[in-house]
Amino acid sequence: QVQLVESGGGLVQAGGSLRLSCAASGRTISSYAMGWFRQAPGKEREFVAVISWSVTRTAYADSVKGRFTISRDNAKNALYLQMNSLKPEDTAVYYCASGLTPYSEPQINSDTYTYWGQGTQVTVSS
Description:
Layout: E1 3-7, E2 10-13, E3 18-25, E4 34-39, E5 46-51, E6 58-60, E7 68-73, E8 78-83, E9 92-99, E10 113-116, E11 120-125
Parallel strand pairs: 2-11
Antiparallel strand pairs: 1-3, 3-8, 4-5, 4-9, 5-6, 7-8, 9-10, 9-11
């Protein structure tokens, strides 16, 4: 059974930083595209960042480009999201996700991801 567990969320002031982690178990994630998505209250889940299985390709939402960095450590079976210069509009529950098909290209559409964590709350105060 595949499990993804996020951690690292919390309350931070605007301009601050947080680093989210996603620990995977039940599968070796090195062969799969991974992504971070978020959902704010009253809004739909949205794409934040994705990374290819090979680590050579990444993509970011325009709203976080230049501030967030997605990375992965396949040896540790983990995914990360470094978030800098946080803004109040970054407040949301952040989810990590894993694709189903190995060696596939990372997608920004959340429907293409099969496995999801329970989420970690990020709150940015102004």
